[in-house]
Amino acid sequence: MIQVEKLQKYFTIHHLNKRLKAIEDISFTVKKGHFLGIVGKSGSGKSTILKSIYGTYQPQAGAIYYESEEFGNINILSATPREMIHLRKYEIGYVSQFLSVMPRTTAFELVEQSALEAGMNSEQAVKEAKETLKHFDLDESLWHNYPNYFSGGEKLRLNIARAVIKKPRLLLLDEPTASLDDASKLKVRESIEKLKQQGTTLIGIFHDLEFMEGLCDEVFTMQKAVVNAVES
């Protein structure tokens, strides 16, 4: 499904005339329907990998080959803006710790819009949005409020709901359980397991190693830059 080859990314600090290395010589492959967990200390470049796959970072070297339903085997690093917009809208989902949305858009409208983008009709989108918001225990009193009034945990659950309702072919998870309680983590785990059963490929970063247990098929360790299979 996705093959990362010798990825390299650095950031330039212009006023200091310095380059900071984010990732170097990163390579791995993820099979369709598998879950790759990425582990490593803070600052090791885990999020940089996900942002490079999603196209929000442009690495200086390497390649990211993704088996797209629309475009076939495409190198994300050389994809056009139009191709990336299509991939983000229909094929690749991204969940971060932070929620960035259009102002004056309610929580329900955000999830409903994601469902519509996935190709559902209006009636189905409303039904799926209600079920998804309920699954993540977002109180109905919040559905028609603006997310900027939500707590950190509520924003994170909304962010996850927007991503999973689309049932993407590839889902990138950047510490999606960072500020969640145990009950909410369980809801996220249930959704991930369901997506896996439906054939979604996943790449995720988790500091909670217990959460990852039994979910991941392989684990990529940043310090060693190697993939290890997880025993079932």
Which characteristics define this entry?
single chain, 232 residues, alpha/beta, Rossmann fold, six-stranded mixed beta sheet, four-stranded antiparallel beta sheet, 28% strand, globular
The spatial strand order of the largest sheet comes to 6-7-8-3-9-10
Oligomer: single chain
Mean residue pLDDT:
87
- Succession of helices and strands: EEEHEEHEHHHEHEHEE
Supply the CATH class: Alpha Beta
Describe the largest sheet. Answer: 6 strands, mixed
Number of strands: 10
What is the number of helices? 7
Distance between the termini: 21 Å
Q: What form results from the Cα inertia axes? A: globular
Number of domains: 1
Relative helix content? 25-40%
Rounded to the nearest angstrom, the radius of gyration is: 18 Å
Structural class: alpha/beta
Low-confidence stretches: none
Stated plainly, the CATH topology is called Rossmann fold
CATH superfamily: P-loop containing nucleotide triphosphate hydrolases
Strand composition percent: 25-35%
Protein name: Phosphonate C-P lyase system protein PhnL
Keywords: ATP-binding, Lyase, Nucleotide-binding
Pfam families: ABC_tran (PF00005)
Organism: Ureibacillus galli
Note down, in words, how this protein is organized.
Helix 3 (107-117) packs across helix 4 (122-135) and helix 3 runs parallel beside helix 5. Helix content is 33%, strand content 28%. It contains 7 helices and 10 strands. A hairpin with a 4-residue loop joins strand 9 (218-221) and strand 10 (226-229). The chain has a 6-stranded mixed sheet with strand order 6-7-8-3-9-10, with helices on both faces. It is globular and about 50 Å long. With 232 residues, it is α/β, with parallel strands linked by helices. It comes from Ureibacillus galli. This is Phosphonate C-P lyase system protein PhnL.
